[in-house]
User: What shape does this take?
Amino acid sequence: MPDSVYRRVLLKLSGEALLGDRNYGIDPRVAEQIAGEIIDVRQIGVELAVVIGAGNIFRGIAASAKGMDRTTADNMGMLATVMNALALSDALERQGADTRVLTAIEMRTVAEPFIRRRAIRHLEKGRVVLFAAGTGNPYFTTDTAAALRAMEMRADIIMKATKVDGIFSADPMTDATATHIDSLTHLEVLERRLNVMDATAISLCMDNKLPIVIFNLTKPGNVRRAVLGEPVGSMITV
Assistant: This one.
């Protein structure tokens, strides 16, 4: 069995990753596919934590732009991430994985409250840990939550799964002249205002020298390739 170059990984998934061909909600088949990729990585021996967004259900910032109070909207978005985490946890459990959902907003009948030492212990026992409800605070994105949890878990890297093959000079979905960028620094991401992760998340990773790889989740096996250190997507380093 090949060896991973990383011991502990934080996988950041967007809520849209669970959409599949749908316009809203969760496609169970897509959840099962993602779960299979995660289990494949766990079998290599990598300790894996997941942070998932809520864009497939509710976007707080979008609701705020339409007049809803931003704090209320963000709280609703954080609750939506719990729904996604539970769905992915269910898909993982049905394929034989042992999981724990930990939330930044307490809801003990649904999931465990986030306690750092408990989360680390779950990882050490081989469980897939899913962090939900963002940071538990409004005005912070799930990208920032991913950066924060990665620091707290002492992860070796953040792997952000997207629908494109890494970072481009422009949006490859709308600009045919967009060129792929293999690697760059956190500071370059901030200076060029590349839409990779929000500035708070990038700054937090830069200050703590945490690398980030951006890769395409829609290509089967890419999670495993990224964990093995193969050149997939784009790498952000100090």
Observations:
- The chain has a mean pLDDT of 94.
- The chain has one domain: 8-163+186-205+218-231.
- The radius of gyration is 17 Å.
